[in-house]
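Table S2 (text version). Query chain:
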Amino acid sequence: MAMLSVSSALQPKTSILPEGGRDFLRRRMMEIVGIATAGFGLALLMALFTYSPGDPSLNHATARSPVNLLGLPGAYIADLL
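Corresponding structure-token output:
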């Protein structure tokens, strides 16, 4: 069984990327998460602003197509909110 020496266990982990590259990727990932969150929020607003009580939903069964801009998923989400 191989045993780690104390000196190798205390050494910091090395990365493939330089420190500047890690910081760059971390910032880009935060930007992507922010843009995705903003997009999700805008989609929720669109679903809520185009809510129609006559749309099919979990509380209202109808054969007509939804008026909501996001379609059936938007009608369901707007009805729940």
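Notes on Table S2: The CA atoms of residues 31 and 37 lie 10 Å apart. The two ends are 59 Å apart (CA to CA).
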